[in-house]
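Justification of resources, computational component.

The compute hours requested in this renewal are based largely on the per-chain cost of generating structure records like the one below. Each record pairs the submitted sequence with a full structure-token output. That output is archived, and it is also reused by downstream analysis tasks.
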Amino acid sequence: MKNLGIFYFSSTGNSLYIAQKVSGELGGKILFIPTYNGDGSEFDNLLIVTPIYSFGMPIPVLDLLQHFEKGRELIVIQNYGGMKGGADKLFCEYAEKEGLKVKSIFTLKMPENFTLVMSPPNFYKNAILKSADRRITAILNDIAVGKFRIPKKKRTKEHTYLKNKNNWYLIGKRFSVTENCTKCGKCISLCCAHNISFVDGEITFGENCMACLGCFHRCSAKAVIYKNKDNKKRYINPFVDEKLIGKDL
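The structure output for this chain reads:
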């Protein structure tokens, strides 16, 4: 696609993996949404890759819609670990409110990373990744030939999304670190919500958490825990370089 901007939000690599697949097939520049300050006007075509959070979208993606120049068309790829819950339709509605038009929206299942209480077994995650590759290929083929889709009218779960979004800060308040914490500051630097800081030499979690779980999954020492339960299972997409998550490419 001519002069394509690929905007992605990713905390554990799923959306970055998809964005890289898009760029490899269609070309384009990959941009991390939380650090992007423009309005999309430098690109002829705009494509957003985003996870589905609580049947809606992450806060940085919602903010991006508010900053894009009005009248632009978007192609959107959403990925989810649990259920869509009408998130594709809700995305279209939110974009329309901001004066944007969703030209096409695609969805695909990726491994679940909301694993604070329980984690799917590895064989299940591997199976999801294999099926995701096939789905990504199909999506890219559709985009290449102009086969676009818009979700039919259906109920969304906007009420649930808004309720959960308003309570995401509680997740941050329930995080803590174990004695394994090396105070390397990695969690602070990768937190897009600026919710983690050093206070009196200790890692401290505030009330701005947006439930991306990047700190939980990407702590090198697995020192970040939830509700004082030391769940050792973490998830990072195995096909991405973890150091590239949150970068422009």
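Residues 120 and 206 are 29 Å apart (CA to CA). The mean pLDDT is 94.
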